[in-house]
Amino acid sequence: MTKFTSVFARLLLGSSVTLQISSALTATTTRYWDCSGGSCACSYTRPSLGLGDSAPAHCHSNAMFTAPANIHGAEFYGAAAISGVLGGGNWLSEGCGKCWKVTGTSSYLQKETTLVLKGTNYCPPGNPMCDGKPHFDIAAPGFDVLAYSLAHECPTREPENAAGFAACSEWLIGDSNPDANCNCSLFNDHVLRKGCENFYSLRWDNPIVTYEEVTCPDELARLHCDHPYASEDNMPDTCASNDYGTVEPPVTTLATSATSSAATTTKTTEPPATTTRSSESACCSWDSSNCGSDAWCNGSKERCMDPCNGKWMDNNPTPPTTTRSSGSSTTQATTQPPATTTRSSESACCSWDSSNCGTDAWCNGSEERCMGPCNGKWMDPNPTSACCSWNFSNCGTDAWCNGSEERCMGPCNGNWMNPK
């Protein structure tokens, strides 16, 4: 179900987007994502939380995603709750599964954008914007206005993403800056995060749009909408994700652990299972030694390092591990084994003391790994005779700073001395 808020009142008083007189059909728009299952069964149940058919959650695939090349010139594909005029109704109405080409303009960016939206929910006449008028309440994770929402179920139906669902609730409420009060990075789930980011990129504050019904593109037609509902235990790809070039993405789950004193609930975005790493393929790891079992995270370095929060392991290197060295009174965390080896002039390496190569083969594999997750310094082979100086006379002894003018003048804060 959708809602009418003070944000939407601007549409009744006059929109900042001027409606041109033309033969095109026009509609009003708002934005929502309340996690309730909706009237078109584009939803799934969560037995792990004790939630069955009476409390389904919206499929993540309803989030807005980048459209492939298409005949409509659409930048994004997405979903919306639709008014009765467009075929919306209380349960599996005729508008469920239909698609519309929708074009609107951001008053902030002065940019016109076209979307193709699929009807996946009902906007009832209790919302004045939907009473007898064509209206699209666009599915946008994070943009439900919590202060006025009549059906915001996210804290109970998807508690692991609760912070994300509130991330943009205050956008353009009490603050006219369109670049404030929205932080899509708070989502743990990458599909929801991208949906939030894609809608935010439009800077659409409920514009009036032109629309026409179109045949649903395949990417929208296959979105999961079916009853009996899907279940988190047997999740279809087309409910969990709208990235059809990959296998099913990871689903964030709640893991409960009991101690002698109390039971605690913690979040994890990685299944605990691992597999022995194959030398023939790269993979994503969460223990720096074994491949994780999540095929989606194993599909590419980008997925592994960002939404999956893992470490990418290339063919046959030894990944870095985090160790702890215990002192008499304190425990200090380090990201590098203490062992070092005398630096070879034939190869570059990663160093943690600016003089000797570390022994970690994974960190030594590239400057990107060394300077990024390994938090080391990259030492080039056979450094140039130029050097970094801090007294304008003598070369400094820091091999890393001596490796390039960029390092010297930047993070090392020295002066680059060319050979005479």
Polypeptide structure, described:
Residues 1-21, 246-280 and 316-345 have low confidence and may be disordered. 13% of the residues lie in helices and 24% in strands. The chain has 3 domains: 9-240, Beta Barrel (Barwin-like endoglucanases), CATH 2.40.40.10; 270-313, no CATH class; 323-417, no CATH class. It is elongated, with a radius of gyration of 27 Å. With 420 residues, it is α+β, with helices and mostly antiparallel strands. The strands form 9 sheets. Strands 1-8-5-7-6-9 form a 6-stranded mixed barrel. Strands 3-2-10 form a 3-stranded mixed beta sheet, with no helix packed on it. The chain has 10 helices and 24 strands. Strand 6 and strand 7 form a beta hairpin. The termini are far apart. The chain has helices spanning 9-13, 154-157, 162-165, 190-202, 218-221, 237-240, 301-305, 361-364, 367-371, 405-409, and strands at 25-32, 43-45, 57-58, 65-66, 76-82, 99-106, 111-122, 135-139, 209-214, 230-231, 253-258, 263-268, 274-275, 283-285, 291-292, 311-313, 323-326, 331-334, 340-341, 349-351, 357-358, 377-379, 387-389, 415-417.
**Average pLDDT taken over every residue:** 76
> From the 3D coordinates, which CATH architecture of the largest domain would you assign?
Beta Barrel
The CATH homologous superfamily of the largest domain is called RlpA-like domain
Overall, the morphology is elongated
In DSSP terms (H or I, runs of 4 or more residues), the helix count works out at 10
CATH topology of the largest domain: Barwin-like endoglucanases
CATH class of the largest domain, please?
Mainly Beta
Number of strands: 24
Termini separation (Å)? 75 Å
- Unreliable stretches covering 5 or more consecutive residues: 1-21, 246-280, 316-345
Radius of gyration: 27 Å
Structural class: alpha+beta
Q: Can you tell me the number of structural domains?
A: 3
Helix content: 10-25%
Which strand order does the major sheet show? Answer: 1-8-5-7-6-9
